[in-house]
Amino acid sequence: MTMLYDMTVPAYKNGLGALSAQLDKALARGAENGVGEMQLIVARLAPDMFPLASQVRFSCLQAIQPPTRLGAIGAPTLTDDATDFAGLQAQIAATLTWLDTVDAATLDADPDRAVSFDLPNGMAFDMTARTYVRDWAQPQFYFHLVAAYSILRHMGIPLGKVDYVGYMMAYLRPGTTPSV
C-alpha cells in the first residue's frame, strides 16, 4: 500500500502543474493588458506576506521537503526567488522532474516512524510520518499554492476553480460538461 506517497507526490504534481498553467495564463494576460512581468513577480496580498516569486518557490519547497524528510534523495535546491517567469517555471519544472524520481516504497516504509523538524523561529516539532504528512506537509503545500493563485487573482488574472483543479478534468464523467 502506498499511503504516504499517494497522499503527497501525486497531489504535489497536480498542484504544481496547475500553478505552471496559471503562470502561463498570467504572463499572456499581462502582455495583453500592460501588466509587466515584474509587477506580477513582486505582487503580494498584504504587506507582511511574501510576494508571488516566494510563494512559487515555497510551493516547490513544500513539495520537496516531505519526500525528503521521509527518505527521498537527490532533491533540487531552490535557495532564491526567481526574478522572472522563466525562472518560476524552471523551479516548478525542476521540482516536477525530481518528484518523478521519488520512490513510493521509501516514503511508505513506516508511516509511524518519527519525523522531527525545526523552524527558523526556534520552534521544533516531533510527530509520526503519518501525522507529519496530514497535519503539516499537506497544509503547508496548499497554503503557498493558494497564496500564489490568490496573488494572481488579485492582480486581475482571470483564473477560476478550473485553473486551480484543472487536473480533475481527467475524471470528468462523459456528457456532464455544462453547456455555456
Automatic annotation (TrEMBL):
InterPro entries: DinB/YfiT-like (IPR034660), DUF1993 (IPR018531). Pfam families: DUF1993 (PF09351). It comes from the Bacteria. Coiled coil: none annotated. This is DUF1993 domain-containing protein. It comes from Sphingopyxis bauzanensis. The lineage of its organism: Bacteria, Pseudomonadati, Pseudomonadota, Alphaproteobacteria, Sphingomonadales.
